[in-house]
Prior knowledge:
By secondary structure, the protein is of the alpha+beta class. The protein is built from 13 helices and 16 strands. The chain has helices spanning 19-22, 46-51, 55-75, 95-116, 127-132, 157-166, 216-231, 251-261, 267-278, 280-283, 287-298, 317-332, 369-387; strands at 14-15, 30-31, 36-43, 82-84, 88-94, 120-126, 138-143, 149-154, 187-188, 202-210, 300-301, 303-306, 309-315, 336-343, 346-352, 359-365. The strands form 3 sheets. Strands 1, 2, 7, 8, 10, 12, 13 and 14 form an 8-stranded mixed beta sheet that branches. It has a 4-stranded antiparallel beta sheet with strand order 4-5-3-6, sandwiched between helices. α8 (251-261) packs across α9. The longest helix is centred in the first third of the chain and has 22 residues, at 95-116. Residues 264-272 have low confidence and may be disordered.
Amino acid sequence: MLNPNAKFYSDLHENEIALQDLFSKDELFRKVPGNWNVVITDIKNSTSAVQNGLHETVNLIATGSIVTVLNVAFRANITIPFFFGGDGATFIVPSTIIDSAMNALLLYQSNTKDNFNLDLRAGMVPVKSIYEAGYDLRISKFKSSKTLSIPVVLGDGLSYAEKLIKGEDYIFNSGSPQKSEIDLTGMSCRWDKIAPPDNHNEVVTLLAIAGDDVKQAHAFKEVIALLDKIYGLPEKRQPISISKLKLKTTFNRIEMEMRASLKGGNVLKRFYTWCTHLLGHLYFKTQSGKDYLTRLVNMSDTLVIDGRINTVISGTETQRLLLQENLESLEEQGIIKFGICVSKDAVMSCYVRDLQDEHIHFVDGSDGGYTNAAGVLKLKLRKQTDTN
């Protein structure tokens, strides 16, 4: 039986206003129901994996965890908020599907270890427990483009849940996964590294959090205002452009995607998938294919706000240096703390249930943009703690 508030997120109003204005309207944020749950996936030692050249594998595994949970929600006809983080993901899930979602993640976790020898953490914290511990979790739905709406979270609830799940003493007591097939329907990671659009020469991955005793809404509004002022509107700093998209063509690169979803070595299925992938070059020359590419750009997930700002943008070195100067000024004032990583390209992985409306594309800076930016931010926070 469907819980009365299982459609909580689906029923949220889409706010078609400027993002800066959204942060000025506290009444547009709703408290997440206590019987929902925060689910977090995270690759242990992802920084080391990225430094060893496994950034594409890390992105692939993170994307697979999103696809795993979204396919559970899809089968239940429930929409849930989720947040891509480069080396993991965060979800807010109703109790109706929490058992199915965690079972699917445990199965995916096992497959990840077998095929890539990387440890994927997967854990959950009831929202009720977050509130009982004195933390806050409010959400709004923001229409970021004509075709894409994203969840925007304020509060420290997700950060608290992340600390619990990543803690050494955290144990998710659900036993072994029930026997089932991994369902990664729709996962696609077949685009090669994507160079910045014409007239841009770099991709910037930025993470920013509010300073101590500073309201998140105020801090985030300041950061978004800087991005708008220096880079222009979101479409002006979009790192994905049709002219720069190139399909991967080597079997080894495509095989990595198939390893994520297959137990054992189903050679025939791998060969079939490789062949159908090569036909994509022909499809994207058709009018239908060209329309899909336009929607792909519009549905690229380049902004994540999950209690902090996570964004991937493109521009010039001059713009980035000006941005850093202004961000450092905000940091000196105690308004924010930030981490930044500069890359030559963007990388993208995708969830495509159909080629019309049901697809979303996760973007990161090449060579571990999010992971490296997070490392910079963690170092600053560690130094602050040591100083205090």
